[in-house]
Amino acid sequence: MEKILPSVAIGCLLIVVWWMLVVVTGSVIFPTPLQVVTGIWELSRDGSLWADIGASLYRVGAGFLLAVAFAIPLGLWMGWVRGAYATLNPIFQMLRPISPIAWIPIAILWFGVGNLSPIFLIFISSVFPMVVQTTAGVHAIERRYLRAAANFGVSRYTLFKQVVIPAVLPQIIVGMRVGLGVAWLVVVAAEMIALHSGLGYLIIDSRNAGNRYDLVIAGMIVIGLIGLMLDRAMRLLEGHKLVRWRYAR
Amino acid sequence: MPAKIAVKDVSKSYASDKGPLHVVDSISFEVGDGELVAIVGPSGCGKSTLMNIIAGFDRPDQGCVSTDGVLRTEPSSRGILISQHGSVFPWLTVQQNLMFGLNGHPHEEKEALADHYAEMVGLKGFEASYPHELSGGMLKRAELARALVVKPEILYMDEPFSALDALMNLRMRNELLRVLTEEHHTVLLITHDVEEAIHLADRILVMSARPGRIQARFDVPMAHPRRLSSSQVQELREAILRELGVEGD
Ligand SMILES: Nc1ncnc2c1ncn2[C@@H]1O[C@H](COP(=O)(O)OP(=O)(O)O)[C@@H](O)[C@H]1O
Ligand SMILES: [Mg+2]
């Protein structure tokens, strides 16, 4: 409780400053905090806010889970098999710095303007950090553990199940946290392009349909809050007993 | 009958910036079945390098190692290495660690065996604990038990107790001696602690500074339990220290 007190204080201060600035400058377009709160209330009452949140979460969920299912086996394989790493790593290093936004035209070309495009964009944006983290995790397994496993002559299955995967799990979770964060950034951008639902659409639509900046800022705040909640949820995973060893001592 | 462990003319160099680093220099010795042989030598003289070769993790540049007359080129669960830095898997509980090397047993049998050895080394009640919840001494016990549970013929112990405080070190030596009276093992023990070697070993080999070679051999004829303050022990200790270039007082 005491730890969040300073952030709450700063938050309140910012709201006061924001409010004063709007009043002092006499802006007619930029909303006051009260107008934003009223905006959020309005949106949630007619149900459109929940529909937009649901649409965005659905896209993030689908793209992110696909990326997890693809990235973790691939990352384990690249980390374990030297040839796979030598071949694929340069390609990933080249694809990784391309902003997911740059993929939008290709996404529309391949998948049209339905749900598949943002799902593809989210997949593209979250798959790279997860592959890289998983691979790095395998490379970071200490040799003494691999030697111990070799000493007991266990099967490949046991080696992966009891040594490699648990050893890499903390890194996988870090990768998932980064991946989900990027996914949430990207969904909003993707929805601004052509879709007719989602939080990104809410923002663009509010501006286009009569400069409703109260709703624009309401959308931004909701995005921030949900992003925070997603990150918190991923942090909960870091406290799971299977990975607690990594953070002990 | 061939010796349990036969080391013949083993040499090893590592490449370094300043040319090859000659670490192990034509070392030969044998260890009989059920014998406990200790190798003492100054730090950095190549003891761990030699041990890794004998246990099958590394290849010598020259010479060979055989166990029971069979050339050893790979690690095997018939000889378990207890490494200097410890290799108990931090992501598994004590019981899971002890069950790790047990292939092909039914699950209940594995559990029973694991619990039996946990009790033997004094870890009863800690089966469900994770390594980060154990003290250094308990961690060593877990490592010892994990090795014992697969009933190896040979234990390769690389400075197993050197990270422990003096009191715990002494206790672990006594524990080891007690365990060895219950089970039949051949032990190759590496240490830099002369007193530990005299306390435990049937024979002591003294290694020179790098490049390590066997510089002297001593028998330890005293019966167990050994009184470390006895004059016989003190004389032997001084003789070994003289070989190591440290004059006794
Ligand atoms: N993989 C390696 N590559 C290069 N040098 C090594 C390697 N392993 C050990 N050495 C060097 O070999 C020497 C002996 O090391 P080690 O066998 O660990 O000694 P000890 O166990 O007797 O303290 C040291 O100087 C060490 O730096
Ligand atoms: Mg060493």
Written description of the protein model:
The complex is a heterodimer of chains A (249) and B (249). Chain A has 249 residues and is mostly helical. Chain A contains eleven helices and no strands. Chain A has one domain: MetI-like fold (Orthogonal Bundle), CATH 1.10.3720.10. In chain A, α3 packs antiparallel against α8 and α9 packs antiparallel against α10. The longest helix of chain A is centred in the C-terminal third of the chain and has 36 residues. The two termini of chain A are 24 Å apart. The relative contact order of chain A is 0.13. The model of chain B has no long low-confidence stretch (mean pLDDT 92). By secondary structure, chain B is an alpha/beta fold. Chain B folds into two domains: 166 residues, Rossmann fold; 64 residues. In chain B, strands 6-7-8-3-9-10 form a six-stranded mixed beta sheet, with helices on both faces. A four-stranded antiparallel beta sheet of chain B has the order 2-1-4-5. At the A-B interface, α7, α8 and α11 of A face loops of B. The structure holds adenosine-5'-diphosphate (ADP) and magnesium ion (MG). The site of adenosine-5'-diphosphate (ADP) has 12 residues of chain B, from β2 and α1.
Small molecules bound in the structure, each named once? adenosine-5'-diphosphate, magnesium ion
**Strand percentage of chain B:** 25-35%
Greatest contact between two chains: A-B, 25 and 24 residues
Shape of chain A: elongated
CATH class of the largest domain in chain B: Alpha Beta
Number of E strands of chain A: 0
Average pLDDT over all residues of chain A: 91
Averaged pLDDT of chain B: 92
Query: Based on DSSP secondary structure assignment, what is the total number of beta strands of chain B?
Result: 10
List the quaternary state of the chains.
heterodimer
Can you tell me the residue ranges of chain A where pLDDT is under 50 for at least 5 consecutive residues?
A: none
Distance between the termini of chain A: 24 Å
